[in-house]
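COMPLEX REQUEST
Ligand: fructose -6-phosphate
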Amino acid sequence: MCGIIGYTGPRKALPLLLQGLHLLEYRGYDSAGIALATEGSLRVFKKEGKLENLEAVLPASSAAKSGIGHTRWATHGVVSDKNAHPHLGSKGRVAVAHNGILDNWAEIRKELESEGVEFTSETDSEVIAQLVERELETRKPTEAVIAALKRISGTYGIAVAFADKPGLIIGARNGSPLAIGIGDGEAFLASDPSAFASHTRKAVFLQDGDIAVLQAKSWEIRNLRGELSDREAETLPARTAEGDKGIHPDFFLKETFEQPQAVARALGNGGRLVKDLGTAKLGGLDMSPRDIQGIREIVFVAMGTALHAALIGARIVEAWARIPSRAEDASELRSANPIVNKDTLYVAVSQSGETADTLAAVREIQMKGGRTIGIVNGVGSTLARLCGSGIYVHAGPEHSVAATKSWSAQIVCSALLALAVGRSRYLSLGDGRRVVEELEALPGKIEQALALKSRVDDLARRWSRSTSTLFLGRGVLYPAALEGALKLKEISYVHAEGFAGGALKHGPLALVSPEVPTFALLADGETFDRTLSNMSEVRARKGPVVAVTNRDDPRLADAADEVLVVPPSLEVLAPVLESIPLQLYARAVASELGRDVDRPRNLAKSVTTE
Ligand code: F6R
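STATUS: Structure written out below.
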């Protein structure tokens, strides 16, 4: 959460910083700010709210050739102009942008205030600016930053600009991602390299404890003792042409419609499927068949939508590989002092690869000797590096804060893992080949499910003002129901709940009323008839019901007000197809209610604080 950008070089910094902030806005949009460094002074512009508000107060142009910018997701201090970053030291000699949370900021603030330093914000971050400025009295900039960082505890990614050294930008990382971009006679600093990737693909990802000292024509990395660290720059993968909304009004809809391609890429465009052996080939897994056979249990860890995908992944593993599998909320697992078994494979699932809770869980597991792999979309992300091996999701960049295409691609990657493990154990050649065929057919079936859009739009017009919406499903469709509810509440702010069909009579039935629609998810298989009974129970209490199904059964017409039919598939893959109308519904309701679909209130795309 929070995005940082920095630039130093021969070009005008302002448009480059602004462009970077636009690309980082997914990390937070409570406020934004820019500090421009010119000889002897720092000019800071900052504004509460989305980037448009900052743009309205920025000068039309500025000659400054270096500066830093920040887009905020508030932790300490309310959302306001004065709490927006960058923060200036009280003498105006230093500007700091910070992503992370400091633990000991209150005592440092008290100490500085007793020395007469005047604070202007309520943030924890301002202490960094004040500390660096105090250290600058007696030290050079790099030493001053190091001395300040030695005083603080907590997480940080920071960018520091100096009034007296306008071409100098210093970055430092402890727990919050930061990368430097090395251009031709210019350098960038950013929380996510996509913020500078259109200018340079040469990047260095900072590690915890790194201090990056950037000037237009030079860069170096030091540690907290001030010693130089050897670091090689790496080349970022070529950028995909997915950075704009194209014909769509928002990224959410665009990314929903990109799911056929995202899933095809997750399948390696066929390259991850081995048809004749009925299995999956996963080069990044770095496990021999013997290693795979030694796995006694698979535990997924993730948060939010990725957790829902992981819950489905665990069920697919049990179905195909017949080994125990479960998915755990990473934040809960981490704090539960987990018992880590050496025969268990831990799979961290994440779109961004930067989710703090998921990273913390992986570190805890690794510290206890557990084997971890990642199912990660963010190439080169902290999680991908931490795990070292796994399956890249390859869904492509996801700009909308609410996840869509990463969700379906994560399920598919979990299915590939289940297939590879299953085939090395109990899954027969015939069953493996059937799975391969079904996976290959998935992108085309998603395409067909997307054709439900206009019917879903009609439903949204009818029910967008509902006080609540319920989602129910059984088996693999239970996590899909949870995801349907999450998507709706997240982007439309309509209260929604997902629950298992079996739980209906144990409480949620009390919520049913003519004003509260229920989406019932059904798939051809063992649970179909029981979910059908749930629908009758809801209708008997005058609750409107929408059936979302992969089996067009004549009984549905009597048990539902509307029936949305997606193409048939294996039961365990039905969540991918049945989520399509749910994503479209959430988006249609949000748009009926005039919400900012891509940037829902209070949220940010990467949750980099615990
Ligand atoms: C919901 C959503 C979040 C994320 C969660 C984990 O639409 O996007 O719930 O799924 O914050 O994020 P990643 O996948 O980046 O670890």
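REMARKS: The longest strand covers residues 31-38. The pocket of fructose -6-phosphate is lined by residues 303-306, 350-352, 355, 358, 402-403, 486, 490, 606-607 (CB under 6 Å).
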